[in-house]
Amino acid sequence: MYTAFSQDPDRSWRLGLFAGIINYQGDLQPSSFDFERSHIKLSTWVRKNLTDKLSLKAGIGQGTLAAADKYNRDYLQPRNLSFKTKIQEAFVSLDFTLFDLTNYKISPFVSGDIIMFHFNPFSYDEKGNKIQLQPLSTEGQGLADYPDRKVYKLTQMALGFGGGLRFAVNDNITLSIDASQRKTFTDYIDDVSKSFVDQGKLLAAKGQKAVDMAYREMKYSIAHHIQTTENKEVHLPRWIGITILD
Length: 246
Hints:
This protein is mainly beta. About 10% of the residues lie in helices and about 45% in strands.
């Protein structure tokens, strides 16, 4: 991420704008960052200097996450699952700059965030229709036969952390290069977490569309499905980009 902001240590609030790219790591995309399948992320915030080195930031942002088994590990590609979701978030952050940029031209910095975010994964059926996945309980969430699988909430909390370098361009503007990451506490951003469930039970509870979206590959047995879906990945949205702060 590239950031420009006023280095004046006054305590007034400043407005910031961000444009960059966001990426996802999870069950459908094991790689830590994939530029080819990244999406735009936009944010805006207000920032207040607490000291010459420490600042408080509060803001909102939006991006898109998406992944598909066709780009996944070879043995998972026949599963043929995919998802896409908008991510809308509100956050509060603390930034710590190691050196005072009124005296230095460059300094490393670190940041920590508390985030509330909203997501709603969807995919497309074989006719190209957009299908919201959470109401279908594709892994038996909320079904009486699977009491340990609760319906996941679409609004969740997350923690963020990042760091990089800030450069003093002039007395009023700095430029920063940084990387940032979110640690979520849900395994369902992509609607994939545990094992496949009994088709008959899912059909009775949620209908044919739920079965169709849960079982999207045709070549392998249900046993293969259960085996491959048990592989769990942590969900870690990441991004880089350009930020301007007035």
